[in-house]
Write a structure and sequence with these properties.
- This protein is an alpha+beta fold.
- The chain has three domains: 2-139, Beta-Lactamase (2-Layer Sandwich); 205-277, Helix Hairpins (Orthogonal Bundle); 286-430, Heat Shock Protein 90.
- The chain is built from eleven helices and twelve strands.
- Strand 9 and strand 10 form a beta hairpin.
- It is rod-shaped and about 155 Å long.
- 21% of the residues are buried.
- The structure holds adenosine-5'-diphosphate.
- Adenosine-5'-diphosphate is lined by residues 334, 338-339, 342, 366, 368-371, 379, 384-387, 391, 396-402, 425.
- Adenosine-5'-diphosphate binds at residues 334, 338-339, 342, 366, 368-371, 379, 384-387, 391, 396-402, 425.
Length: 432
């Protein structure tokens, strides 16, 4: 990765340097060319005022030629005009005839020189041509190319160093992160990578938290399973050793059964939770009437309610919900069960199915012991119980509301808790 980035940087800078060198060379040549032609034009202007044959023109400086209308050379400052071939077809002459002036650069391989021709049409119909040879132009070009090459090499080296440093700066936080996520401070990395570091860090923390919760849960489960098993084992041992009177036998058997039931309840709840936890589980969603489901579930709770001397009151309207029917049944069951178990003698539980702002709503409200503010936030945690002994004595596992929370999440629903100690609790489930 580092290497590829470096190489790419270098290719880009090399390309940029080459293009710049090429364009500046072309530009430079063009500027020089314009300069030479401007000089020639000035000469031509001066010469056209006088008779060229009268002029003393040094050989190196320039060559002056006069060409007649038919192309015959009338005068040449460097050669015998008579011996020269017809110049009619020379491009600069043709251009001068057509447009008044003509320019041309010719390259001579033999002498390695550029010859610049500037021709202008005179009033008498002849063409006056001035020419200048320029080896110097080429020399200048050669020198500049040398300078350009040197500059290009230096620039390229600078670019390579910069590319190396830049890549290192870009890669370094990522490499550091690979070594240790937690010590990496977000402020120490450059801005563009900050969200990336933040997300990775958050995910990392989530994984750690998740692992911690899992470990806690396992420890809690073991502890919760151990208590009833110890009790069962203890009672059985007493019976085995003949330490229980015949008349107490029933009471002991009852204790064994109660603890065994607690174990069963616990295992059932743990299994439900782990099922809800597993991501592969696909809950088949179906449309059903929430009112009918709540009413049926309530009927199942009539016996335990009677035992606690609690009255169940059902009301509401029919409304359709799309969801996992057995999961919603479990949810309703858990809420009603809590409303009965944490109630007072002669208390009431109101179960209502309504539509609120076009959302199906289930309300389970009781006149029971209530939950104080500080506990309200935590009751959905696994094994969290306000009063452990009351929960246990009524067959609670501390997992009921954790299961409720899971089911709510799976249905994109929401739950609100309103409660006052000594007055009662109102739980409201709002479906999406
Ligand atoms: P549990 O099996 O102990 O009932 P839950 O997860 O269902 O476990 O509930 C957690 C705790 O929340 C309960 O132990 C109880 O203290 C409190 N709680 C739940 N529902 C009610 C309610 N309707 N009234 C008062 N307290 C409640």
């Amino acid at each position: 990765m580092k290497k590829t980035m470096n190489v790419r940087f270098m290719i880009i800078s090399a390309a940029a340097i080459l293009i710049t060198a090429l364009i500046s060379t072309i530009l430079f040549f063009h500027i020089l060319k314009r300069q030479v032609f401007a000089d020639l034009q000035a000469y031509e202007h001066v010469i056209s005022q006088v008779d060229p044959s009268m002029l003393e023109i040094s050989k190196e400086e320039m060559r002056v030629t006069v060409i007649a209308e038919d192309g015959e050379v009338l005068f040449d400052s460097q050669a015998n005009a008579k011996e020269m071939e017809n110049h009619k077809d020379r491009p600069e002459i043709q251009a001068a005839r057509r447009y008044g002036v003509g320019e041309k650069v010719r390259w001579s391989d033999t002498f390695s020189v550029h010859t610049f021709y500037y021709a202008a049409l005179m009033e008498d119909g002849s063409v006056l041509r001035v020419a200048k040879q320029s080896t110097s132009l080429y020399d200048v070009m050669k020198n500049t190319i040398m300078v350009i090459v040197v500059i290009a090499v230096i620039t390229f080296i600078l670019c390579a160093v910069a590319a190396h440093l830049l890549t290192r700066r870009m890669i370094e936080p990522i490499e550091r992160m690979a070594h240790s996520l937690l010590v990496l401070e977000e402020d120490n990395v450059y801005e563009e990578i900050r969200p990336f570091v933040k997300t990775i860090k958050e995910q990392h923390m989530n994984i750690l938290n998740h692992a911690k919760l899992r470990q806690e849960f396992t420890a809690n489960v073991s502890h919760e399973l151990k208590t009833p098993l110890t009790a069962i084992s203890g009672y059985a041992e007493l019976i085995e050793n003949g330490m229980v009177q015949q008349e107490d036998m029933g009471r002991f058997a009852g204790q064994i059964q109660k603890n065994a039931n607690r174990l069963l309840n616990l295992i059932n709840d743990i299994m439900k939770l782990s099922e809800l936890d597993s991501e592969e589980m696909e809950i088949p969603f179906e449309k059903f009437d929430l009112y009918d489901l709540a009413e049926n579930t309530m009927h199942m709770m009539e016996l335990p309610a009677q035992k606690q001397d609690v009255e169940l009151i059902f009301s509401g309207e029919h409304v359709e919900v799309n969801g996992g029917k057995s999961l919603i049944e479990e949810l309703i069951y858990n809420l009603i069960s809590n409303a009965i178990r944490y109630n007072v003698k002669g208390g009431r539980v109101y179960i209502k199915v309504e539509v609120e702002n076009e959302h199906p709503v289930l309300v389970v409200e009781d006149t029971g012991i209530g939950i104080s503010k500080e506990h309200q936030e935590r009751i959905f945690e696994r094994f969290y119980r306000v009063d452990k002994s009351r929960s246990k004595s009524t067959g609670g596992t501390g997992l009921g509301l954790a299961i409720v929370k899971h089911i709510i999440a799976q249905h994109d629903a929401a739950i609100t808790v309103e409660s006052e100690e000594g007055k009662g609790t109102k739980m409201k489930v709002i479906f999406g």
